[in-house]
Amino acid sequence: MTLGALSSLCTTQLAFANTNLQPLIQKAQQEGAVVSVGMPDSWANWKDTWRDLASKYGLKHQDTDMSSAQEIAKFAAEKQHATADIGDIGFAFARVAKAKGILQPYKPSHWKDIPNWAKDKDGYWALGYTGTIAFIINNNLVKNPPHSWHDLINGKYRVTIGDVGSAAQANNAVLAAAIANGGDETNIKPALTLFATLAKQGRLSLNDPSIANLEKGEVAVGVMWDFNALNYRDKIDRSRFTVLIPSDGSVISGYTTIINKYAPHPNAAKLAREYIFSDAGQINLARGYARPIRTQIALPDDVKAKLLPNDEYKNAKPIHDFKAWQKTARHLPQLWQSQVLIYQQ
C-alpha cells in the first residue's frame, strides 16, 4: 500500500473515531476485499462507493450482476462455500431472503435515520435508497402533460407501462395506480379499470420504457421508477423530457442491502454497508439518481439538481402489507390478461 493510501486510511479512521468503528475497519482491512452481487458500477452509481472503499480502506472489489431472485438463490445454494459477501435486492425480496435464513444482521451507525418501514428491526436488511413510480413525458409528443393518474384518461397520447406480471417496475406501477384511485395491496381493481380504459382507447403500450425506446421517440408517456426516468432524461436530453411523481398518489419502494450469512469477507461487507449509509455513501447513490433513504442529508447543489424536489413525493406511500401484495402479485398476470389485455387493440 502506498504512503498516500495509508494517509487516506488514517484520515478516515480519525473521522470515524467517535462511532467506534475502528475494530471493524481493522478486521475489514485484514480481509482486504468485498465481493458483491447485483451492485454493478453502472447501477445507482455504485462505482463511486467501490472506489471510495478502495481508496479509504484499501478494499478490493468485484461484482457479478444478478437479479434479486438470483442473488437469493446464490446465497442459499452456496452456503458454507459462499463466494459473495453482500447484495442489493428489491424491497419485495427482503423478507423472503430473511426467511430463508441466509442473511446476517448488521445495524450501521445511522440506523436511527432509516424509517421503520424501510428496515428490518433486527438489522437483517435495510433500504439504502428508494424508488418511486413516476411519469416520464416526451415534451415533443405531449402538449398537455399529465400530472396525475386521472389525467391519463383524458389524454391523446399512448401510455407505456412495460411487461406487467414479470417486471417489478411495471407491477409497482399497477399498485401505484391502484393506491392513487382508492385501492391498496389487496385491491388493484381501480388500476385494472384505468388501464383497461386506456386499452379500449387504443392508448396502452406494453413496450419497455427503455432508454432506447425513449430516445427513438417511441414513448410519449412512460411509467417507471423515478431513478430510471431521471437518468434516462439526462442521458438523452434534459430539455426533451419532463419527469414527475403523479400528484394523486404513487408507490415508494427501493432496494435493500443484504449481507450473506456465510460471507467470506463478513467484516468488509459490514463496512461496505456502513459506508453506504454514511453521508458520503448516500450522496454517491444520489449522484446515480437513487434517492437516499436518509432524506435529511444536505446534498451538494449539483446532486440536488439531478433529483426531484421533496414536495413531489408528498402522496407517495410505501407498501405496508407485503403478504397481501405478494398474494395479489401472484395473480397479477392472470388479472392483467383477463381484465386489461382483452381490450388491447
Detail the topology: elements first, then pairings.
Layout: H1 3-15, H2 22-31, E1 33-37, H3 46-57, E2 60-64, H4 68-78, E3 86-90, H5 91-99, E4 125-138, H6 149-153, E5 159-160, H7 168-180, H8 189-200, E6 204-205, H9 211-215, E7 221-225, H10 226-236, E8 241-244, E9 250-259, H11 266-276, H12 279-287, E10 291-292, H13 301-304, E11 316-318, H14 322-339
Parallel strand pairs: 1-2, 1-3, 5-6, 5-7, 9-11
Antiparallel strand pairs: 3-9, 4-7, 4-8, 4-9, 4-10
Helix pairs in contact: 2-11, 7-8
Task: Supply database-style keywords.
single chain, 345 residues, alpha/beta, eleven-stranded mixed β-sheet
Written account of the structure:
- This protein has helices spanning 3-15, 22-31, 46-57, 68-78, 91-99, 149-153, 168-180, 189-200, 211-215, 226-236, 266-276, 279-287, 301-304, 322-339; strands at residues 33-37, 60-64, 86-90, 125-138, 159-160, 204-205, 221-225, 241-244, 250-259, 291-292, 316-318.
- The protein contains 14 helices and 11 strands.
- α2 crosses α11 (266-276) and α7 crosses α8 (189-200).
- The longest helix has 18 residues, at 322-339.
- α3 (46-57) links the parallel β1 and β2.
- It is of the alpha/beta class and 345 residues long.
- The protein is globular.
- Residues 1-18 have low confidence and may be disordered.
- Strands 1, 2, 3, 4, 5, 6, 7, 8, 9, 10 and 11 form an 11-stranded mixed sheet that branches.
